[in-house]
Structures are given as C-alpha cells and as structure tokens.
Amino acid sequence: MLAPGEVLVVGERISEAGTSVTHPAGAEIVDLGDRTLLPGLIDAHVHLFLHPGAEDLQTVQESVPQRTLTAVLAARDDLMAGFTAERDMGTEGAGSADTAVRNAIDQGLFPGPRLRISGNAIDILGGHEDAIGYNPEQRVLPNATQANNAAEIVAAIRQQLKEGADFIKIYETGKDSLVGGRFSTPFQFTAEEMDAAVREAARVGKRVAVHATGEPGTLYAAQAGVVSIDHAFQLSDATMKLMREKQIFAVPTFTIFEYFADHAATLADGARERAMLNYHAQEFRKQIAAGVPMAMGSDVGPIPHGTQAREFVLMVQFGMTPLAAIQAGTVNGAKVLGWEGRIGVLKAGCLADIVAVSGNPLQDIATLQQVSFVMKGGAIYRRP
Prior knowledge:
Order of helices and strands: EEEEHHEHEEEHEEEHEHEHEHHHHHEEE
CATH class: Alpha Beta
Helix content: 25-40%
Distance between the termini: 18 Å
Radius of gyration: 20 Å
CATH architecture: Alpha-Beta Barrel
Number of helices: 12
Strand order of the largest sheet: 3-15-16-17
Largest sheet: 4 strands, antiparallel
C-alpha cells in the first residue's frame, strides 16, 4: 500500500512505485488526494454465472445465452468494485461459456477482471451439484460434469481443458451437516481419484482447486496437492500441516454463508446457516494459528456481484489482522491464480492493476468496500 504515494504507469505496466516517482513531460497526472493506493483486489472464488435467488432454478429456467449475458454484467460490477482479477469456480451448468466471457474481456470487448476459469466443474452422480430433489423422470441436468472413477475424471479434465479451462474445479465433499456442534460431510472422490485428477492437470501445467468443507475429503485433497481448498470448514491437524508445508491455500468464503443466514426462507434455515457460520469462524481461528495459507474468496454470485469486499471485513472479524486479510486478497490471490509476480503488488514491472480507497484499511478494513478508483492494465475504469 502507498499513502502518500505515486505510481508511474507506462502502457499496461507499472514503471515506478514509491513515495515519489519520475514525472515525464506530457504524462497525464491523476491526483487522488489523500486516498490509499493498493494493488487491484483479487477474489479467488466467484461464480459469474449465478445471481441472487434460487440457485438450482436459475440454472434450469435461464438459457445459457441469457446466463452468459448476465455473467458479462457481473464481471463489470466486480471490476467496478475494485476486483481486477478473479477465479471463476464453475459455471454451474453453463458448460464452457466462461471461456467466451474471459476471451471477450481479454480482447477488450467488455470491461471485467482478468479471469482464470474452470468451465463446468466436476462432480459425482448424486453429488453436491447433481439435480437432487426433482422428479427424476424430468431428467434435470446436473450443474457440473459427472465423473465416477479415475478414468472418467481424466476424460472430464481433458474435455474441459479442450474447451478452454485454465484450471480444474472439483467438488470433493457433499452435503454438510452440523448436529450438536459436530460437523460432518461425505467425501466424493477417493484419495486415489484425487491423485489421478491432480496428475492429469499437472501433465499440461494446470492445477486443481476443490470445494471441500471437511474431513476426510480435505485431507485427500491436500495429500494430492491441490492449489486450494475452498470453504475449508473443518481441517484436521494433519491436513493443516500438509497445507502449510505444501503452501495449499484455504479460501474461507464467509460472505456467502452470512448472506444465506440473513436471507433464509425460514427462521429455522437462518438459524442453521448462522450456526454453520459460527462453527466455520471458530475453526478459522485454529487454521490461522496453525499457519494455514489464506486467500480471499467470497463465493459471490448467490450474493450480489460487486459487494464481495465484505469478505475482508469478516476475515478480520473472525481473527485475521487487517494486513493479513489484504494480503489474502492481493499477494496470495495472485499465487492462487498462478499470476505471482504479475499482479497483486505495486511494483515495477507488474501489471498496472491499481485501486484507491479513502482512509487507511489497516485501521478500518471496511474502506475496501468503498473503492473509488479502479485501473486495470493501465486503463482507468473508475474515477472518484
């Protein structure tokens, strides 16, 4: 962070950054007053193809073209909120449509963050993203690609990479349960199947991220060597040790669970979501103490796009220092996306992804919810 500070941008990259920089003749000067400059924010867990409302119904009732147009608008909203890079964790039944969105943004056709995309994600028959609870005669499609053994996983990965995926998203745990303070969730892929997935992705230089809320699925994922374990409600001592040693990131996604608790259909549903959030916060403190690497991810989609900086506030509320939370959404996010050294820092040679906020986020982390200036790749998208 720089406050006060100056950044010299030449083309799409930072040329100098510090208390003061060279002022070339004829350069445009953007005076942001006493605002604090930060690297562009990075959300490592988003769903551009989802919006608030009944998640399963929108994937059934809305066509893929309609959802793609919605995703373009969602990407714009996230960028304007200061998120200059994101990892889209599955299109939830829209196949490889995120390839088109990523490419259109890269070509400058639409405003949006730099994207790492995973396509349709991978699940098992009857798993987390299958169409459970519908009349089976209606043949409602699942929200992820199904694979039920190592060979099918490899085939699904190859198909998704062919369609443009930057990384592979796998649902490693199923329905969560919290009864009497005891959390449980079934694993979906065996340790051997997770190994096969990570090996296949690594064969072509790609990585695997998992939806995994608890043991033993989180352990299987860590043993296989995934890049991140997303949600991570429950991590055993062995899992946390592996994550620390292998630098596997936990992505907590508190915001989605707070939103579900606040917008539950019934009081009972709200109480259940709130209990899950409280349990997650309690375990999060243990993970911080154990030195588990953290990356910021909000699971935005079922919550309104552009509001996900709330995640920083919750990470601090539940035990992180403001500085560590900011690092989770900048430096660490860049590592998770595979762009370390390109984004996530204000440093000469890095891409000029820069945001500004009023005040000091080290003193009030909530200032990150009010980004007033957004630059991505040297282009200004928002000014005070």
